[in-house]
Design a protein that fits this description.
alpha+beta, binds adenosine-5'-diphosphate, nine-stranded mixed β-sheet, five-stranded mixed β-sheet, binds magnesium ion, Hsp90_N
Length: 568
């Protein structure tokens, strides 16, 4: 006999539910996207496990998603005959949040509804979005291959109830008991519009219930509308989006698909869709998000593409197809050359994987190259992913040339102070006698902007690239030259060359300077003792009285700090 057990949500879930119901209200229809997306994922997962155990189909391999509504009861039901969940999975999946980045997400919440709803969008609420429109949700589910079915019920506050259920068919029914205000979700025409939008790219049929229609006759007794029994009608085209022709796919369809695979609420910044035939046969569809995920710099963050082999879903987060520095790219790869039983281990060192990885990397870099043609979009991209891309300079030698084109720096020539200068821009602006690309790394944007080292460069009208990100020191250590022009840190550079006109070049009073300041210099040397190697009169500065320079070959300030932090 069935016993009902009451369980509390993990604290974070209760918090999230509260946020969802209070701040996603203006965008409520997305709950359908999330639930259809989950149903489609469940069917993909069943197909995958059934590859090795065909019995799991239990004589029902007609996989589909069905949606029905009941105006009188004010309910909406989303059903799938996918993999289903057992009791423990219900508790784990619908009672906790197991995502990486959860802690960071909750820490960043501000209490400001507008800002927070954007954050929630980025975080992804998935199943819990049902509570935007429902005040009670029932999940009835039986896992493929198991005999017992279970029911989960909650009002979306602090707890849920689990009991056994008599559901006989495999898969999951999600019943939303809609809030009394949400009548549009039991209106067939409105439902059809929303569902079409969110399901056209889904590769299995999505069917919507059509009520019975009574026969209609005109005055002469001729039948004008034939009577129809109630039935399910397929409302999507049920063809995987990436298999369709590019020219037939609208931007909106790409964006909806992006949200389906990435769980992002925001549109993608751009994408690249390619079908390749020949020695290697594959289709790839790669997206650049607009916002970096919370866990971009976390070690255990999920990354990689959704892998299909001959149109069968194989796995999420296949990270073998892109280098680590492109971990923010989302997308799908569908290969005809990999075996259906491919595992992560096989992928690891396969020749096909290597070729696909090379191809996907190139596609991704080309896509960003095209994005860079739009300054505004690229500035946003750079702010979100610039530091991640910089990792590529040391990681990906083969694509260096392409990566160089994607780098952006702040520059003394650009008043905004934002990183918008490409290396090619810098080189194009170099005066003929200048041979090096000058740069300065400081601790912060402000420190960079006001560094006394810049004075002599400003005076001579020589542009300097400014950097202040922790990764810059490391990156510049890997960069030696661009288009034959060596890079040089300005706090290590020799300014005696003809490029630099100093005050004293004009008046030539350097000897008298020396005599005049000899006592001062001796005093400073005595005071600073071992802390400095030497104290010299300099022509570098025009406004600031003193500055610290490094001996050439010495460890930079940032490097010294990094070593110190590492305990050396
Ligand atoms: P996500 O889809 O990002 O994993 P969700 O909150 O949408 O997050 O869903 C949480 C989990 O609940 C899913 O990962 C899945 O394991 C499970 N789940 C949700 N809906 C279904 C379903 N219709 N069939 C089977 N499992 C489901
Ligand atoms: Mg989901």
């Amino acid at each position: 006999m069935s016993t009902t057990e009451k369980m509390g949500f993990q604290t974070e879930v209760s918090q999230l539910l509260h946020l969802v119901t209070h701040s996603l209200y203006s965008n409520k229809e997305i709950f359908l996207r999330e639930l259809i997306s989950n149903a489609s994922d469940a069917i993909d997962k069943l197909k995958f496990v059934a590859l090795s155990d065909n019995n799991l189909y239990e004589n029902d391999s007609d996989l589909k998603i069905q949606i029905r509504f009941d105006e009188t009861a004010n309910t909406l039901t989303i059903s799938d005959n996918g993999i289903g969940m057992n009791r423990q999975e219900l508790i784990d999946n619908l009672g906790t949040i197991a995502k990486s980045g959860t802690k960071a997400f909750f820490e960043q919440l501000s209490g400001d509804a507008g800002k927070d709803s954007e954050l929630i969008g980025q975080f992804g609420v998935g199943f819990y979005s049902a509570f935007i429109v429902a005040d009670k949700v029932t999940v009835n589910t039986r896992k493929a291959g198991e005999s017992e079915a279970h029911q989960w019920v909650s009002d979306g506050h602090s707890d849920f109830e689990i009991s056994t259920s008599d559901k006989a068919s495999r898969g999951t029914d999600i019943v939303l008991h809609l809030k009394s205000s949400e009548t549009q979700f039991t209106n067939r025409w409105q439902l059809q519009q929303i569902i079409t939008k969110y399901s056209d790219h889904i590769s299995v049929p999505v069917e919507l219930w059509q009520d019975a229609i009574a026969e209609e006759k005109d005055e002469d007794g001729n039948i004008t509308v034939a009577a129809q029994a109630g039935k399910f009608e397929q409302i999507n085209r049920a063809k995987a989006l990436w298999l369709r022709n590019k020219s037939d796919i609208s931007d909106e369809e790409y964006q909806t698909f992006y949200k389906h695979i990435s769980h992002d609420f925001q549109d993608a910044a751009t994408w690249t869709h390619n079908k390749v035939e020949g020695k290697l046969e594959y289709t790839s569809l790669l997206f650049v998000p607009q916002k970096a995920p919370f866990d971009l710099f976390q070690r255990d963050s999920k990354r990689g593409l959704k892998l299909f082999v001959q149109r069968v879903f194989i796995m999420d987060d296949a990270e073998q197809f892109l280098p680590h520095y492109l971990r923010f790219i989302k997308g799908v790869i569908d290969s005809n050359d990999l075996p259906l039983n491919v595992s992560r281990e096989i992928l690891q060192d396969g020749a096909v994987t290597q070729s696909l990885r090379k191809a996907c990397t190139k596609r991704a870099l080309d896509m960003m190259g095209r994005l860079a043609e739009d300054n505004e979009k690229y500035a946003n991209f750079w702010q979100e992913f610039g530091n991640t891309l910089k990792e590529g300079i040391g990681e990906d030698f083969a694509n260096r040339e392409n990566l160089f084109k994607l780098l952006r720096f702040a520059s003394t020539q650009d008043e905004t102070g934002n990183p918008t200068t490409a290396l090619a821009d810098y080189v194009a602006r170099m005066p003929e006698k200048q041979e090096k690309i000058y740069y300065l790394i400081a601790d912060s944007q402000t420190a960079a902007k006001h560094s006394p080292h810049l004075e002599i460069f400003a005076k001579n009208g020589i542009e300097v690239l400014l950097m202040w990100e922790p990764i810059d020191e490391w990156m510049m250590g890997q960069l030696h030259e661009f288009e034959g022009k060596p890079f040089e840190a300005i706090n290590q550079t020799d300014i005696s060359g003809e490029l630099f006109q100093t005050e004293s070049d004009e008046t030539d009073d350097s000897d008298s300077d020396k005599d005049q300041y000899q006592t001062l210099i001796e005093n400073i040397k005595t005071t600073l003792g071992d802390h400095v190697v030497d104290v010299r009169i300099s022509k570098r500065l025009t406004k600031t009285p003193t500055c610290v320079v490094l001996e050439s070959g010495a460890l930079s300030n940032q490097m010294q700090r990094i070593m110190k932090a590492a305990g050396q």
